[in-house]
Predict the structure.
Amino acid sequence: MSFLAPLFLFGALAVALPIIFHLVRRSSREHLPFSSLMFLRPTPPRMTRRNRLEHIFLLLLRCLVISLLALGFARPFFQKPMPSSPPSETGRKIILLVDTSASMRREGLWPSALAKAGEILGKTSAADQVAVLTFDRQAHSLVSFDQWASMEQGNRAALTAERLGDAKPTWWNTHLGNAIISASETFAEADKQAQNPSARQIVLITDLQEGSRLDGLQGYDWPRGIEVQIEPVQSKRPTNAGLQWVIDADDSMKTEADTSPRIRVSNSANAKREQYQLRWEGAAGAMPEDIYVPPGQSRIVQAPKLPAGITGERLVLTGDDDDFDNTAYIVQSRAEQINVVFLGDEEEKDPAQPLYYLKRAFQQTRRQNVQIKPHPTSAPLTAGELAGVRLLISAVRLPETQVSVLQTFLAGGGTVLFIMKNTASAETVGRLAGADALTAKDVVATNYAMFGQIEFEHPLFAPFADPRYNDFTKIHFWKYRRLDAGGLPNARVLARFDGGDAALVEVPGGKGRLLVLTSGWQPADSQLALSSKFVPLLYSMLELAGGIKARVAQIHIGDTVDLSGMTASTNTQPMTIHKPDGATVQLGEGETRFSQTDMPGIYTAGSDQQPVRFAVNLDAAESRTAPLPIDELEKLGVPLKRREVELARQIEQKRLLRNTELENQQKLWRWLTVAALVLLLMETWVAGWLTRRSTVPAEGTT
Amino acid sequence: MTSENTVSLISPQALMSIKNLELRARVVVEGFWHGLHRSPYHGFSVEFSEYRQYSPGDDPRYLDWRLYARTDRYYIRKFEDETNLRCHLLVDNSRSMTYGTLGYTKAQYANTLAATLAYFLYLQGDAVGLLTFDEQIRAFLPARHRPGHLRHLMLKLEEPPAGAATDLDAPLQHIVEIVKKRALMILISDLLAPTETLEKKLSALVACGHDVMLFHILDPSELTFGFGKALMFHDVETGKRLFIDPATARKDYLKKLNAHNATVRSTCQRLGIAYRRFGTERPLELALFDFLRERMQSGTLVKRRIA
């Protein structure tokens, strides 16, 4: 017999009450009137001796009534064997998903993760199939289902644990979303062959840090029958502060004085400390600097000042719990030397010549230093002189030798801007463009000419596409050379005068391109050099020519670095990259993209004479090590498995429900209550009879 | 007293079987007193008593001028008072007095005692008044000596007790206010009430010049608490019920009762009040003897007190 509310059985202890009452010899029926009780105090009830229990039968009845009531309230029922769920014969499929992101480098996390994995592996049965995936930014298969199956049955867990033991946390950031989805897809692949999919479980061993990326999980269509069990590993010291190098979008206008890099230091919300120190490592004479960051906030601070002439590359934060994210690698960019060759015999100081304006168009900035190198037409031009040059400008007819050099330059990817100062230069244009008999005619505009039609889609004019800047009507042209653009092969007219004649023509040549401006910017031809569009247009050309490289943003672990923009040379020999740990990576022929940025530090690429250095830093998100609430995953629809306690609770609930049903069917309490009522009636009758019996003779005597 | 042992006395049980109160009183008093008592008081009456030499301060009204003329000395003429004694019987008729274990109650005993005294005094020609009380005053008869007054008094005494509690303060206060003439106050009560204010009220009575006698009447069971088995005791005044085992409670009860009685006794002693406590089993003649003894002693007692 079982009970639905067994606590009510304690009510049966109330049988002590009638027993006590029967033992108490207080015949309350007898009263004695007394004059005054002012001198009397109540006497505590005295017990009679046990053998003097009065009215045993009545006592039994009363005890029985109380016991029956207590029993009834406890809702008894007869237990039936519970239909047990059929034992799973097929075994489960388990994917062990182990976090190897940088945050797992925290003290004690990785060993405890391994211990947890070992524990889970130890619990697997022979019928189970297990795969082990490690994940950081992506998931990597460590042991596949097939490998597991091929292992010797008794040794599977040990071997797998051993393999897992060889793995180490990487420096990558955590993409939990990707990892879970990869695991789910691994199941899908494995189940393609299987006829009946067995129970599938993803066991996620992770520090579940706040900085994990979860995108991708939202809206993911979860296959049925997968459950995700999270086994979080906790760090003993969950607080952390991280630092990040903040790169300004445009620091070209900054002076040398305020070039010390800016650092964002963020503190975790549960941190107990607010005071940290920033110092340059490996820089002699650099003083550490105290910084104050309240918990849960971030501060952007200037890195400590370095003594003149000393550069620091490693900025270290001290004072927080975990060290893995406390170093920022910083490589300050240096001004880039850009050479532009001007072919011509013009006087630099002659304001009537284009060179005069060209020289003044490019200002020296922190990021680049554009140097115009005039080269006389008479002197022979060598390929060596053009090494590293991306833009070449010419305005006059060139001798044959130079034309051929220019042709090679064009074929090699260079850009030539040809300003047609006179009709004679048409021949050179023709030669360069590959149209031999090209002639031009001087046109003097009746009033003035201006750009009438501009192709703003072209990269050259794209910066001007905005309506605020696309007004070119202020630029008046007095003279220009009419060129038959149709005679130029593959020519594209980028701008036309209002008369319909071509103003700026682009002719592709080899890898490079030839730009032909049919007018000049010197005052005799036009007002172009005086207009506000002149400098932007020249920069636009320089950029088009590849002279100005796109700014390399912050490089994080795992980012692919495009080295083509970094190395100045156009040579095509394979590139060698030295990693911070001394390893060397050789890129393939013509390959410029480097993707093995798998540790923080300073990488060196290129030749020994002109090394390009770039810093790779840890993802700032990885510093956010506070535990992520599991609810977040639940909100994203991850089918989380309830933990053991919850499972037990669920089973308990089920059992309770079944018990309630059984009890409801049997309803024993009713019978018990009826019995109690019957006994109560009997008790009343017996008690009444006893009272009558005791009072009748008493009356007789008085 | 030797008379207690030699004289055959009527047992109270036998006496109480006489239903009529007056008859009972007469039985007690009959043959008890034949000219024993003379009033010690002198009053204004026609019956001459004696001459006394004048001393300054005497009322000159009573100077006998004829005698002065004869003897050239001042004499005061003294007369016997017509009613020698004014006596007020203060009888407690509260519900606690209805208790009794001897077949009659304390109230019956007290009323018989009061009736006996009244009859006795009446025969002497004294004026007798009555005041019955419980927690308030039930009946009051002023002290008179006239035919029919005694009968009236007996009827009042025969009224059954109705009050719930005992309150001595109110009747004492009342009697102080009403009775201006000095009188003999005989208080008959079981005194089962708190004694805090008793002294104050009694002293007021004494201060008014009254002679006070206190008959403290208790049932023998109250004095000994000789109950056998544990019972639910039921206070007849308050209705309160207590479960009491006499075996354990007796000691405490007697201690408290004795303390109470001692308080009353010492109060009476301090105030010069004649105090008699006895159980209801005591023959009434003895009470009467007590009364007379007290009367004879009272003069000396008062004098001693004044001295």
Remarks:
- The CA atoms of residues 194 and 260 of chain B lie 9 Å apart.
- Chain B touches chain A at residues 96-97, 99, 106, 190, 192, 194, 219, 222, 227, 230-238, 240-245, 248-249, 252-253, 256-257, 260 (CB under 8 Å).
- Confidence is low (pLDDT under 50) at residues 1-6, 34-44, 300-307 of chain B.
